[in-house]
Specification:
Length: 202
């Protein structure tokens, strides 16, 4: 059941809003969903709370789940207290991460106006985030030749140049790019190169 949770289920579990960041790279997530109240997002952004938010700091330093009421991080800007006045009275933050070098992290914060999240709800949210983290993982089946062609596309080289530089036919380059697009779920070679770059593959 927990693996089948969708956005509608998340909205029911977190009726006062949620924020999910998937596959955070150097600075930005590969995908994000922000269903927090617009007035809170505006206030949070204007006050530059992200650097001080104890829930975000916890998410970057831990894996698992933590209710906001159990956070031990300092809150000098009183972010959690201010969130309460925007209807985000009870929250839980979930964080998952790959193992090994080059590991990427995903996290989500989920909020309710009425009560603490139950242990079961937290398990469901953790399972949901773990599944979404897995679904957005970079493919591992791209060949060296395909990655080489994508790297050249990223560098702005045209098909003829790539073929010349690699010492292969244009047809061979087209096939490599076609395979790479399929594996990355991209529509164009440029999009495939951008995705591969985002994944840190090239």
């Amino acid at each position: 059941m927990c693996a089948l949770l969708g956005p509608d289920d998340i909205a029911q579990l977190a009726p006062s809003g949620y924020y999910i960041a998937l596959r955070i790279g150097f600075a930005f997530p590969m995908e994000e969903a922000n269903a927090l109240p617009a007035d809170w997002v505006d206030h949070y952004t204007k006050q530059r709370f992200m650097l001080f938010d104890p829930a975000v700091r916890w998410a970057y330093g831990n894996t698992g789940a933590c209710r906001w009421s159990e956070l031990e991080q300092e809150d000098p800007k009183r972010v959690i207290l201010q969130a309460r006045s925007f209807g985000l009275r009870f929250g839980v933050t979930v964080s998952v991460m790959d193992s090994g070098s080059g590991a990427q992290r995903s996290f989500g914060s989920f909020t309710r106006p009425d009560r603490e999240f139950s242990d079961l709800e937290i398990k469901l949210l953790h399972a949901f985030l773990t599944r979404r983290h897995g679904e957005t993982a970079p493919p591992t089946n791209l060949t060296r030749a395909e990655l080489e062609a994508l790297r050249m596309v990223k560098d702005g080289k045209r098909l003829k140049e790539i073929a010349h530089d690699l010492g292969v036919s244009e047809g061979a380059v087209k096939q490599r790019l076609k395979n790479a697009k399929l594996k990355l779920g991209a529509k164009t070679g440029t999009q495939a190169a951008a995705l591969a770059n985002q994944y840190g593959l090239i």
